[in-house]
């Protein structure tokens, strides 16, 4: 086998994924619903939840505008053209 | 060591210093080579028919698989007779089995030489042969752990970009696009159009996969094609393709429209789907429209929790601040209550004591009255009896019966003779008077 395995880096690159963020939001809401969190913890959870919802909203917005269709061969040609130039 | 079929020892001079035999005339060597190759054991070979072409007298083609290729040839008459007899129509891309042995055309001064596997019989490989090959390769890949690598990758629920490898004219293209639209997903879709069923398919798919993996944001790749016969789908069981997919760091979703036999691509992929629609749904794990609604609902709930956290605590603090005054008021009320109870109790107790004293006084009064009456009634009789009893003991009555009492002159009664001798001067009392006497010893 002569081909090199493609995609050497993980796609997430360490960034919090949508699924991780949405799972954490559910966890936060469950904790808040329980009424057991202290004021300090509540404020911390609210802050974290707000950040995570913004992240989810950004991810959803990124795939919410318009379907963008590209052809790989054109993309590769363009990149090769850029590389040659 | 010289073989029996080797050419005779040449007469010309060789290369000075070389310890190799020769030089031999090339024609003789070619003839000897042909003899040698023809002596090889005759066998059957299986592989993909490639580059089939017919000359005037012979038919030429190559037989290939993933690891090698052999040029083949057959007498055209024999080839056509076999095809007619077996009802075959061999064409490029077919898996065939050929029977024959090695041969060598030695060429001539005006003709090029060439090696070929001389075919004297053939048949199209049945599904059994293909399945056996696939199964062998499947075992090999499994033993290397390559069937699990893709399944261990984390698949994003919401990829920003999706790569799709499929035939340009296939229906899969429309199905994938429609399914993604239904999901409410409107990100970047990168199409890689490749052959999906001939011998060019596997290398092209491998290249496309490598290129897609290098495109920014492509987080999942779909390889899709419609259904077909097992022979048509052989490209998707290509060993190199399967190893490339297995080693890819991006999840690959296989969508091969088959109903019975799985291709090896199905086995090595992260997910295997039966339709492009399912593959698209596997690539985008959530309904984006619903996810937007849920994110909004979560934001509202968090805001409500934030408001409640402050308001509820402020209310609690207010209650707590009012608590001491309320407690004092309650305690004061309690004290007043107890005071009232004590007073009432004291009044009740005094009343009952008074009644008891009154009762006792009445009882005592009655007892006193009764005693007084009784005394009045009984005492005179008792007194008379007592007077009689006392009168019985009166000394005067004894004196009146003739007795006398002896006293000292000082008036002390004397009851025996010793006292009388001591006193010497006595007074005797009789019932009618006293006389003084002196004691004289007889």
What does this molecule look like?
The complex is a heterodimer of chains A (85) and B (442). Chain A has 85 residues and is mostly helical. Chain A has one domain (18-84). Chain A has helices at 18-34, 39-62, 72-84; one strand at 68-71. Residues 1-13 of chain A have low confidence and may be disordered. Chain B has four domains: 26-125, OB fold (Dihydrolipoamide Acetyltransferase, E2P), CATH 2.40.50; 145-286, Rossmann fold (3-Layer(aba) Sandwich); 288-322; 396-438, no CATH class. Chain B has eleven helices and 14 strands. In chain B, strands 1-2-3-5-4 form a five-stranded mixed barrel. A five-stranded parallel β-sheet of chain B has the order 7-6-8-9-10, with helices on both faces. In chain B, strands 12-11-13-14 form a four-stranded antiparallel β-sheet. In chain B, a hairpin with a 3-residue loop joins strand 1 and strand 2 (58-65). In chain B, helix 4 (172-182) crosses helix 8. Mean pLDDT of chain B is 86; it is low at 1-5. Chains A and B meet through helix 1, helix 2, strand 1 and helix 3 of A and helix 4, strand 7, helix 5, helix 6 and helix 9 of B.
Structural class assignment of chain B = alpha/beta
Class from helix and strand fractions of chain A:
mainly alpha
β-strand number of chain B: 14
- Specify the overall morphology of chain A: rod-shaped
Largest sheet of chain B: 5 strands, mixed, barrel
Assembly state here?
Answer: heterodimer
Residues in helix, % of chain A: 55-70%
CATH arch. level architecture of the largest domain in chain B: 3-Layer(aba) Sandwich
Structural domain count of chain A? 1
What CATH calls the topology of the largest domain in chain B is Rossmann fold
Spatial separation of the terminal alpha carbons of chain A: 32 Å
Give a short account of the largest sheet of chain A. Answer: none
Number of strands of chain A: 1
Strand arrangement, largest sheet of chain B? Answer: 1-2-3-5-4
State the order of secondary-structure elements of chain B, H for helix, E for strand.
HEEEHEEHEHEHEHEHEHHHEEHEE
State the end-to-end CA separation of chain B. Answer: 201 Å
The chain-level mean pLDDT of chain B equals 86
The total count of helices of chain B amounts to: 11
Reading off the top of the CATH hierarchy, the class of the largest domain in chain B is best stated as: Alpha Beta
Cα gyration radius of chain B (Å): 71 Å
Unreliable segments of 5+ consecutive residues of chain B? 1-5
